[in-house]
Amino acid sequence: MARNRTFILYWLALVGFVLLPQLISVKYYIHLCVLALIWVIAAQGQNLIQGYTGYVSIVQAGFMGIGAYSTALMGMHFDLPVWLTIILAPFVTAFFALLTGYPSLRVKGHYFAIVTLAFNMVIFIVLMNFHDLTQGEAGITGIPKPGGKDALFNWRDRETYYYFVLIIAALMTGLAALIVRSRIGQILVAIRQNEDLVGAVGIAAWKYKLFAFVTSAMFAGLAGAIYAHYQSFINPEIFGIAQSLDAILAVIIGGSGTIAGPIIGAFFVVFLPEYLRFADSFRLILYGLVLVLATIFMPRGIAGIARDLMEKRRGRT
Amino acid sequence: MATPVLRVESLCKSFGGVHAIRDLSFDVNEAQILGLIGPNGSGKSTTVNSLAGLFPITSGAITLAGAKIDNLPEYDRVAKGLSRTFQTASTFTEFTVRDHVVLGCNVTRTSHPLSSVFGIGRKSSEEEDLAARVDRILDITDLTPVQDQRVGTISSAQQRFLMIATALASNPKVILLDEPAAGLVSHERKTLSDLIKKIRDLGTSVLVIEHHMALIMEVCDRIVVLNFGQKIAEGTPEEIRNNPVVIDAYLGEAA
């Protein structure tokens, strides 16, 4: 019964998202919605490793960078179609996640967080300094939109891209839901609760942690690739540690270990700084304050509070 | 002649300069309850942790059903048929009791974990067998009435039985029980001793560490006594009760 109700809520939310561009008159807000939906994909990935497995990774934006640069570079150097490079980008990211995940998942807690933070710094430094490949700080321009010359849709129109990203974000959210409801999801939650016991019940925790980490990176790689083709321009600035922290905050504020959480959180981290523009130079301080307060007073996030309220109401009726 | 399921040969475990276990050998035979007793610090828990693969042994050999297992990681030993419980309650508190036991069944599954994500290649017969086995385990551990409750909300005694239930879910050849009676009151200890005997009668061998002598003497077929990391005696409960070395080192005159 509760599961049916949640299912209906997700469908209603999807209908809302489909109608959204018709209700928004300012094009800039559609642009922000596209960015937020891209963040939904990255945050769903972050939630797998952070929210469900209990390992706070600080490299999500770095993996978005790998996805973004690999789609752009594959298109430039191998002349591959945009669709193909978008599909391949998460696999390139997965390769790097395997390389980094295997050694870093040997440590836990803060140590894991710091190791992944170091990886994000390495990715950033390489993107910045491997000039021949990445063009350094200047970045890569002219990344083509999907569709080509005789495309069915006008990909330069933000609305078209909005629906494209909405479909991908919905599919990736669906995939995340399938994973967490599966046997694998149960094991990830078991690792979060009591990792030592997982081995004692005959489960090789490292395999599942690596699965969560690599899958999480693939979500980020896909988000990065979609971002690159949407903006047509990428440079290392947007794939730094600050953005990885945004992914963590999206999960915490939205609701860690819930499927709705990353959706809410992604919109929060994209829209909140915009709404705080009135504060001018105090904007980032105010943003930080809102985040600190939210983390202190809503440790289970907005989705967690909503669920508590729903359960309370159900208990009363 | 009884067949050994678990054979421990010349097991040694040192932590730096401290020799926690020295040259320990014993067998756990098929469908047998073997008790491991001794004073605090005698090396009982180190023995169980070494057998379970929590840390590498210094020297010696551990074989399970004829296969060497001392180089295997903890989770592979469970898959081979050696499962365990812990001295202090160690559970997944957010799960329901039933899901907790289902998780313990993981090693017995033959379908790929990914099949549970997409539903392709899922074996319905496997799920049915598993559900029936979980029902049976919940029944013999008296946990059926609380199967839908969250683990964090059941009593500590029920959590202890849940640890045994989860260990049984992997279909072990040998189950290691590390102080299963700790914190139990008398009628719960009675249920526990009945359960341990039932586990043996169903064909699983049991190695039990316990300080509660009445329980040990009642359930065990044989007992090994440790002191300062060495075996000082082995025999039937009757022999151990009357062994002057054991009385001197551990049991005392009143036993």
From TrEMBL, chain B:
Entry's EC annotation: 3.6.3.-
Is Cell inner membrane there in the keyword field? no
Instruction: Supply the InterPro entries for this chain.
Output: AAA+_ATPase (IPR003593), ABC_AA/LPS_Transport (IPR051120), ABC_transporter-like_ATP-bd (IPR003439), BCA_ABC_TP_C (IPR032823), P-loop_NTPase (IPR027417)
Q: Name one Pfam family in it.
A: BCA_ABC_TP_C
ABC transporter domain residues? 6-253
Look at the named UniProt entry and state the broad enzyme category this protein falls under: hydrolase
The keyword Nucleotide-binding is annotated on this UniProt entry: yes
Q: Name one GO molecular function term.
A: hydrolase activity
Q: Which keywords annotate this record?
A: ATP-binding, Hydrolase, Nucleotide-binding, Transport
The protein's name: Lipopolysaccharide export system ATP-binding protein LptB
Q: What organism does the UniProt record list as the source?
A: Sulfitobacter dubius
Q: Which gene encodes it?
A: lptB_3
